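SECTION: protein entry
WANTED: fold as C-alpha cells:
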Amino acid sequence: MKKNSNYSVLLPTLNEAGHIEKLINEIVKVFKNNQKKYEVIVVDDQSDDGTIRIVKRIKKKNNNVKIHVRKFGPKNLVMSLKKGIKLSKYDHVIWMDADFSHPPKYLSNFIKITNSNKHYDILVFSRFIKKSKRYFQVDKSNSVMIDKLSYFLNKICKFFIFNNFHDYTSGYICIKKSKLKKLKINGYYGDYFINLIVDALIRNFNIKELPYIEKERASGTSKTIGNKIDFFIKCYFYFLSLLRGIFKKSFSSLFYISKK
C-alpha cells in the first residue's frame, strides 16, 4: 500500500465565478477525508467575473490552494495546463474541467487505485465505457451538437488509432509525474488530450479508464463552442490530431526508441 501518495490538482479557469468556490471546497473535502497531502492549483486566464478574487479569498484560508494568473500570451487551455504542471510539486498530477462537469467526488477513485497494489501510470475517467453516463442521459434532456461531435470523434479515434481506448477527449486524468515528464502537452484546445493519450499508448504506459457520471456545466458558458470561427479552428486541430495519431501509430518505431 502506498500510504504516502500525494496529489496536485490543476484547475484551468476562465470566468467560473458562479461555482468555483463550491468546486474547490468539494475537492479539498475529498483529500481531507482521505487524509492525503494535496494542493489545488488554479491557473486562470485573466477572468473578469470575479473568479480570481474568489480563489484568492479561499487561498487566505487554505494554503494548499494556490492561484497563478496568466498575464501574458493568449487565453489558452493548453498553456494553462503546462503552467500548472510546471508549478505542481506532488507525485500524482490530476487535472479536470473547472465547470463541474467532472464531479470532484470521483477523485476518491483516483486515490483508492493509486494507493492500492495495482500499478497504473495513467487513470482516465471515460464517458464512453460501461457504467458511465453523459449528463443528458441523467436528466433525460437532448444532447447538443458538441456532444454528438464528441461521440463521433471518439468513435473515429477508437477505430483508426487504438481500439482499446475509448475517451480521447476526456480531460479528467490522474498521471504519475514521473511519467508525465516523458510526455508533451501540445495542442490548440482539447485536441491536446488525443496527442497525450496516443503518445502514452505508443510508449506502452499502463492506462486504465474508469466509469463516471458526467454533470452539466454548473454555471456560465462553455468555452468549447465559443464563436463560430474559433469553433471551426478547434475542429481543424482535432482532425489534425487524429491524423497525427494515425501516423504516429503506424510509424511508432521511428518516433520512439524506448517504449517505456
